[in-house]
Each structure stands twice: as structure tokens, then as C-alpha cells.
Specification:
alpha/beta, 9-stranded mixed beta sheet, 5-stranded parallel beta sheet, 27 strands, about 25% strand
């Protein structure tokens, strides 16, 4: 199991097919394969040894697409860096795993001087771009033009493929160590489950440093698909590439889906090429899902649930789970069933499996489970037990094995001794016609310990009041679950992967307090 296999197969069988489209530039699989073999030669000429880490700090591009197989081909390990991180977080993830080679684009060249000062292990910085490299940086294209292609290192199986840093929004980032076995198996499972199919034209609008996009990217490599890439997410850019490039498949995180379906210009574009909408990385509220299915009636919707530590997927909710009899049973609110090759269970605090319907922690095992956290044996031991990955997500499982995620365990609100799961409250609020997006958090309350607060982004032209939102909730859920406070904001804080940063919403209310609930 090695991650260059899909590319090698496409080079052999469909060399003239289009592999990538970026800003009008089109490359065939033969061209991409040649570049990847020469990237391997370039990196080895720069001193890369087997297992050395190569970082990437850049926006989406066709250079990012070739970065992954190029580093694998050379025998290295990828370290894709979150572009929304602070200097301190970026420095940490470079130093923590002794990254010696870094690739940057024009958006991050100003950081290089400080990164070199703070990262003594960083020996080589390459510049990617259509123009010449700035002073002090090596010109990637010039080096590539002179590089000799080399044989694929064929690292695979348990060999380390990448260190994917996660958790930087809530604490010190953790380097998730994923082997070739885990990432490759997930890509094959995605094809087997019908997430991707041969001949698909897929778009990369989610950040390519994130494994959610990497999951789709590797599945596309596995079945020889065309990659259409935009530098960063923008709703109009999404409309244009679907219309102009005939995109059939796309991964969008929930916040992106909301911005796309609520955009006033959506009706101006022909979007019926899109047949497969993939979503994951965070829960998708029912209100946004309904609007998305209405906006793309010709498309099937597929949810993937998991986490970086699982390479990254452990359950899938297929299109037929979103409609018809399955929808009538509420299955569209689930994260689906365990994928091929993966086991999932719901456990109590001691790790014992709970009866169906009871809420506990979601645990998973299978070939996608990480090797561990880089240089964090204690945290590795806490997360990995007897081959099972304990996710930190609260959930329940029904009689047919459908998993329902109720909350991150740390996001659960305890008010007056009752457990309130923010996802459930968000689902109800999202169905209000005036709500574009929302987040539910727990804030301190002298009487109840915590109380429920809703933070809401209004839809354009709507002016809902606090009482209107609360009354809407009371019509659907128990009173103790309903928000006692409602705050309207222009936008919600998002991570680089498009997840809502609830910690940033909570922190101002909990400053100076010893929080009693985790």
C-alpha cells in the first residue's frame, strides 16, 4: 500500500488525460508524473533522506497537488501547514518534527526570515510561483527544470507518510502520524463506498493542507479523476469552476455550503454538472442541508465523519440516507454507518460498549487509525487503547448501526444537572428561516452552573429578535435545552478547515473563572 500507486496507474493507462486544472493551466497525467519524478530528484539533490519532513505553507494550487506525491516519491514525509495559524503555531509545527525543507508561495514569503530565525532545523526554503523567486529563496521551477527524474522510493505500509498537525485552535498543536497504510486504505474505501467514481471531475476549494480535502484528493488519484483547483474558497469561484469546467464532485465543509447556497448570485450560473456533494469536517445543520438540497436538486449528498487521527473517515452517510424512507426515520441527521474495514462503537467512560441508543464516546478501529502523536506518548496512550481510537465525540448508535454525533464531549453544556448537546440545539435553530448560521455554547450562570447561549448570523434582509428564536426552539425541544441568551453577529470565527471556533466564542465569558464543566 503506497500512495503514489494511483498516479503511477494513471500515467500508465491514461497518460493524455487531464490531471489538473489551475488558473487555466492544464497538465496531463504524463506531465504530472514527469514532474513528480523530478520533484523526487530535486528533493534528494537538496539532501532529503528517507523519512525527512517537507513542509508546505501555501494556498491551493497545482503545486500543492504535486507536493504530496512528489514528497512520497522522494521518500519523505509531508507536513502540510495550516495557513491560518499564527507565527507561533507555524514555528511550533516546523520545529516539533524537525522540518528541514519548506515550500512557500508568494502569500507567505514575508514570514520566511522570522521562520528561519526561530527554526534552526529549517535549512532549505523553496519558492513556488509563476515569477522569479525572491532574494534568499530557492526557485522551485528553476531547480525542477534541471532535476533528473528518479525511481519512486515506494515507501508504503507502516512507513510514515505525513505528520498532520491538529488542535492548534484549542491548545498546543498535536502532530498526528499517519502511515501510508492508513491514508491509502481510506482512499480505496472511498472508491469502494461510491464516494468517488472513475471519470469524475473534482474541485479543490477546501484547503489542501487539511486531510478532509486530502481524503478526496487521494481517492481521486486512486480512480484517475481530474483535479480542478482554486487558490482559496470563494462562492463565486465555486460557481464558475462548476459551470466552466463541468465539475461533477466537490467537497465543501458546512460553513462553505452555507455561504454557497445563500449567495445572491447562485441563480446566475449553470450548476447542473454537479452530481456529488461531499461534506464533512463538522456537523451540517438541518436547515443548511435542506437549503443545499434545494439549491442542487440534481446532486446526491454524502457525509463523511471522522477525524485526522483516522486518516480521516470512519462512517459514511450515503445519498439515499438523506431522502425518502431514511429521511422519514431521521437518518439524514446521522453521520451514517461504519465504512468498509472500520469498526465503530459507543462506549462509557471506562471504555465499555453501551446499549444502542445511549449516549457515550465514539470509538473506532481499523486500518486508518494513526500511529500516534509525534513526541506525545502520554496523549497517544490516552487516545489509543487496545487498537481503538477514542475520538472525544459524544454520540449514540441506533439499531441499524447509524451513528448520531451529539457533540464534542468538551462542548457539552451541563445546565441545572441536565446535559445539553449543542448540535441538537443548533439543528433546531438552523431551521428558522432568518438564520444563516449559528453556534451554541455554554456560558456561566450563577444559578444553573451553565446556561445555553446561541450565537447567530442572520440571513440577508432578516431581522429576527431574541424572543422569536427562543420561541422557535421551544416548539421543537425541551425548555431546558433552549437558549436563554441570543447574540447576533456578522460572522462566526472559523478555523482554516472551516470549523466554527467555539473556544473563541466561549472564552470571553469564562475568563477569570475555574470552569466546572469540560
Amino acid at each position: 500500500m503506497y500512495l503514489t500507486q494511483g498516479l503511477r496507474r494513471s500515467v500508465q493507462q491514461t497518460p493524455g488525460s487531464i490531471a489538473s486544472v489551475y488558473k487555466g493551466r492544464r497538465r496531463t497525467f504524463a506531465e504530472l508524473g514527469d514532474r513528480v519524478a523530478r520533484i523526487g530528484g530535486m528533493l534528494r539533490a537538496l539532501g532529503l533522506q528517507a523519512g525527512d519532513r517537507v513542509g508546505m505553507l501555501a494556498l491551493n494550487s497545482d503545486w500543492y497537488l504535486e507536493y504530496y506525491p512528489g514528497v512520497y516519491w522522494a521518500g519523505g514525509v509531508v507536513n502540510p501547514i495550516n495557513t491560518r495559524w499564527s507565527m507561533g503555531e507555524i514555528t511550533y509545527c516546523l520545529e516539533d518534527c524537525q522540518t528541514r525543507i519548506l515550500i512557500v508561495d508568494e502569500h507567505f514569503t514575508a514570514m520566511v526570515r522570522e521562520l528561519r530565525q526561530k527554526c534552526p532545523e529549517l535549512k532549505t526554503v523553496l519558492y513556488i510561483g509563476d515569477g522569479p523567486a525572491p532574494d534568499g529563496l530557492l526557485d522551485y521551477e528553476a531547480l525542477l527544470a534541471r532535476a533528473q527524474p528518479v525511481e519512486d522510493a515506494l515507501r508504503g505500509g507502516e512507513d510514515l507518510a505525513g505528520i498532520f498537525y491538529t488542535g492548534g485552535t484549542t491548545g498546543i498543536p498535536k502532530g498526528v502520524m499517519l502511515p501510508h497504510r492508513g491514508i491509502y486504505t481510506n482512499s480505496i474505501i472511498a472508491v469502494a463506498e461510491g464516494v468517488l467514481s472513475y471519470g469524475s471531475i473534482g474541485m479543490h476549494v477546501a484547503p489542501m493542507f487539511h486531510l478532509a480535502d486530502g481524503y478526496v484528493m487521494n481517492a481521486m488519484f486512486a480512480c484517475g479523476c481530474t483535479h480542478v483547483i482554486t487558490p482559496r474558497f470563494d462562492p463565486v469561484a465555486v460557481f464558475e469552476i462548476i459551470q466552466n469546467e463541468g465539475v461533477t464532485t466537490g467537497l465543501l465543509v458546512p460553513t462553505m455550503i452555507q455561504m454557497v447556497v445563500d449567495h445572491p448570485d447562485i441563480g446566475r450560473y449553470r450548476l447542473d454538472h454537479l452530481r456529488n456533494v461531499l461534506y464533512g469536517a463538522a456537523p451540517l445543520s438541518e436547515g443548511i442541508l435542506d437549503r443545499a438540497m434545494k439549491a442542487f436538486p440534481q446532486a446526491g449528498f454524502t457525509q463523511m465523519y471522522g477525524m485526522t487521527e483516522l486518516s480521516p473517515t470512519c462512517t459514511i452517510l450515503k445519498p439515499d440516507g438523506h431522502r425518502g424512507a431514511a429521511r422519514a426515520k431521521g437518518r439524514h441527521r446521522s453521520a451514517g454507518q461504519a465504512t468498509i474495514g472500520c469498526e465503530v462503537k459507543i462506549v462509557d467512560s471506562m471504555g465499555n460498549e453501551l446499549p444502542r441508543g445511549e449516549v457515550g464516546e465514539v470509538a473506532a478501529r481499523g486500518p486508518g487509525v494513526m500511529l500516534g502523536y509525534w513526541n506525545k506518548p502520554g496523549e497517544t496512550a490516552a487516545a489509543l487503547r487496545d487498537g481503538w481510537m477514542f475520538t472525544g465525540d459524544g454520540g449514540r448508535m441506533d439499531e441499524d448501526g447509524y451513528v448520531y454525533i451529539v457533540d464534542r464531549i468538551k462542548d457539552m453544556i451541563i445546565t441545572g444537572g441536565e446535559n445539553v448537546y449543542s448540535v441538537e440545539v443548533e439543528r433546531v435553530i438552523s431551521t428558522h428561516p432568518a438564520v444563516a448560521a449559528c453556534a451554541v455554547i455554554g456560558i456561566p450562570d450563577e444559578q444553573w452552573g451553565e446556561t445555553v447561549m446561541a450565537v447567530i448570523v442572520k440571513r440577508a434582509g432578516a431581522e429576527p429578535g431574541e424572543e422569536e428564536i427562543v420561541d422557535h426552539c421551544k416548539a421543537h425541544i425541551a425548555g431546558y435545552k433552549c437558549p436563554r441568551r441570543v447574540r447576533f453577529v456578522d460572522a462566526l470565527p472559523l478555523s482554516g478547515a472551516g470549523k466554527i471556533l467555539k473556544s473563541q466564542l466561549r472564552d470571553p465569558y469564562w475568563q477569570g473563572r475555574e470552569r466546572k464543566v469540560v
